[in-house]
Amino acid sequence: MTPAPLRLAIAGLGTVGVGVIRMINRNAALIEARTGRAVEIVAVSARSKDKDRGVSLSAFAWEDDPVAMAKRDDIDVFVELMGGTDGPAKAATEAAIAAGHDVVTANKAMLAVHGQALATAAEASGKLIRFEAAVAGGIPVVKALTEGLAGNEITRVLGVMNGTCNYILTRMETAGLPYDAVFKEASDLGYLEADPNLDVGGIDAGHKLALLSSIAFGTQVDFDGVVLEGIGSITIEDIRAAADMGYRIKLLGVAQMTGRGLEQRMTPCLVPRLSPLGQLEGGTNMVILEGGDSGTIVLRGAGAGEGPTASAVMSDILDIARGTRVATFGQPAAKLAKAKAAKADTPAAFYVRLHLTDKPGALAKVAASLGEAGVSIAQMRQQGETEGLAQVLIVTHKTTRDALDSALSAMEATKVMGGHAVALRIEEV
Amino acid sequence: MTPAPLRLAIAGLGTVGVGVIRMINRNAALIEARTGRAVEIVAVSARSKDKDRGVSLSAFAWEDDPVAMAKRDDIDVFVELMGGTDGPAKAATEAAIAAGHDVVTANKAMLAVHGQALATAAEASGKLIRFEAAVAGGIPVVKALTEGLAGNEITRVLGVMNGTCNYILTRMETAGLPYDAVFKEASDLGYLEADPNLDVGGIDAGHKLALLSSIAFGTQVDFDGVVLEGIGSITIEDIRAAADMGYRIKLLGVAQMTGRGLEQRMTPCLVPRLSPLGQLEGGTNMVILEGGDSGTIVLRGAGAGEGPTASAVMSDILDIARGTRVATFGQPAAKLAKAKAAKADTPAAFYVRLHLTDKPGALAKVAASLGEAGVSIAQMRQQGETEGLAQVLIVTHKTTRDALDSALSAMEATKVMGGHAVALRIEEV
């Protein structure tokens, strides 16, 4: 007796949706061998029916309205690939849950904001929301964390989770180009979201980090608790100075549970150039999972693109076909603790760049401001001069961000600085 | 209503067994939150009851005979951590299957040889054999391949899967020491198996590769089809010459399905120094999974040790507690095709080191032998001379191993060589 096929409805036929259709067409025999049943697309929905997508849709029912499609009673799984925090994606996901379907989604923005409510609703009726494709594209990191390291207390999750930012930062370095020029290149190449701030502001990567945090620490997704800082203020000088000192600058996500609460940061950081993170080039993603027993597990792969993202969507679909039922965030959503955001970060060394007016005693005032705030200096160098301003680079010893910020405020008050200081954390990896 | 605890019997209380007991003790609350049920150790077995292992066994029934323990009717899962291809490990695993228990094992040797028969027997009665800990220690690579990339056609699996060999090779390079000296160091440090040939002969890593091949290509485990070559003939000169040319030498496992059959090799290879594999230091493991859609997924972590290996065992146990039921090799063992071993390898460039008698025309004879076999030379250098023998290093263009071997035989017949040539594949990664 052959089990019934697993029946899908796919909402959203952009790159990823088309990739999923292609994988199901191409690997049908493989999928059936591996899951013991066929996976079948019943219906699809997208904004335009007639667009040429390079795959035939003629075997599937067409639905103009994804919400109506989500309510069909001839499907088992609703595959949400439309994107967007609210709007049709959320409405259709809610409709699918209400209709008693499992949901597979690649939508990090929706889950980062509504994940707790959606997962609670789905689990109340024994249904699942799966989201491997929402984090780090083709890297099976949600599975590695939720299942592969399930026996571990997770101590820290960190990683580079936005390929566009990593492309921009590595391209600035290799081509010696300023941020604006590389930003324009990335834009021309179509690497940026419609709202580029989602990428370069760290928001997209912050969504992903918030999802991983929830699994790692058993807390409700808390995107508001993620300290966000984009890469727009990073200069080619910062990149070069970091390189001189043996570091590279990455938009790095870090989540860890501390005595002070849950710390979640998505900020540009310095990491050792010879570490796996420091060696990460271009659009590649890397996530590092630190377990109490497993030690450090590093995962690396394509963070975006048709094939990799479709591969992650398929992983969730095949899990459902095989009967694997793991709660959305690794434990029942209704039991997740509310995250208490840490008021202060774990101490670290910092890299500071600032510009000083070329007056006697200026550097002394900087040093005094640091000293008075209890921040001690590991390295300091003054170099170059443009328009009457000298650039000063400082590496501090381990300190708190609060102490550093109060030192920087004190410096600004002395009026010896031109513009604002840039301060980047040096993350121990 | 709380579900019944998952009841375990653990056979083998070495490092890994003790690690599993520690994790269950320490993370009991976490495990119950994540799986919805308690995980409980009912009975344990090992060679000596009285040895001090640093953990209390008083809460568990003691069994002198692991086979008797495997037959207990008050357990759900038999955890086999004794090791060994046959003997008690196999007898107890068979007994556990016959008694209707799931089995979790870290035993690559047993599965590489008897995996097909054991999995078929287990699956015939709806039971599982799980073996995350058998491959690459704490890295959840079995799960990544079986589930995370389940929708992909896998094109190639490769990796460094024996930490001891990688320790020896990187230590030779950094300390400038010959093989024998570092082998002795590793032995003194307790890094080597009781039969060191399991490590340095590539057998242990070959077992692991054969298991991954089965999952990747849907074929029955075929350890006999793995071409094995150890690291014993690698000299410090090879390592230096490779470094000069931008490579490092790794004991590298490669499995790929070709038109000529299944290719499985565990041999010392040259890999680009700046690739993730080339940058792998010390005892760390790395496995690379290449999927048709996912692209290249790199996984890196500790390949051995109490915590990492116990973490992998726990992943299997927690999957069972959660009700996840995936066939041992990703699809039913009874349906796996018999692997047809490839008669010839995929062409590659090769590194060749040989010694020539210092006679006029010797080098010409080498070049002629290569040319007549159709092997063309990309680089050749003659350097140094010891005891009347000059060392010659050659890098070929892409060729087959057969062509190269016939060239090497022809060279030997000319009697201009001292000893045998060393030929190492340059793997494209």
Describe the overall structure.
Two copies of one chain form a homodimer. Chain A contains 14 helices and 16 strands. Chain A has helices spanning 15-26, 28-35, 66-70, 87-98, 108-124, 141-148, 163-175, 179-188, 197-200, 203-217, 236-244, 306-322, 362-372, 401-413; strands at residues 6-11, 39-45, 61-63, 77-80, 102-105, 129-130, 154-160, 226-228, 247-258, 261-272, 284-291, 295-302, 349-357, 377-386, 389-396, 417-426. The model of chain A has no long low-confidence stretch (mean pLDDT 95). In chain A, the strands form two sheets. In chain A, strands 7, 8, 9, 10, 11, 12, 13, 14, 15 and 16 form a ten-stranded mixed β-sheet that branches. Chain A is elongated and about 85 Å long. Chain A has three domains: 6-134, Rossmann fold; 141-302, 2-Layer Sandwich (Dihydrodipicolinate Reductase, domain 2), CATH 3.30.360; 349-426, Alpha-Beta Plaits (2-Layer Sandwich), CATH 3.30.70.260. At the A-B interface, helix 1, helix 2, helix 6, strand 12 and helix 12 of A face helix 1, helix 2, helix 6, strand 12 and helix 12 of B. Strand 12 (295-302) of chain A pairs antiparallel with strand 12 of chain B, so a sheet runs across the interface.
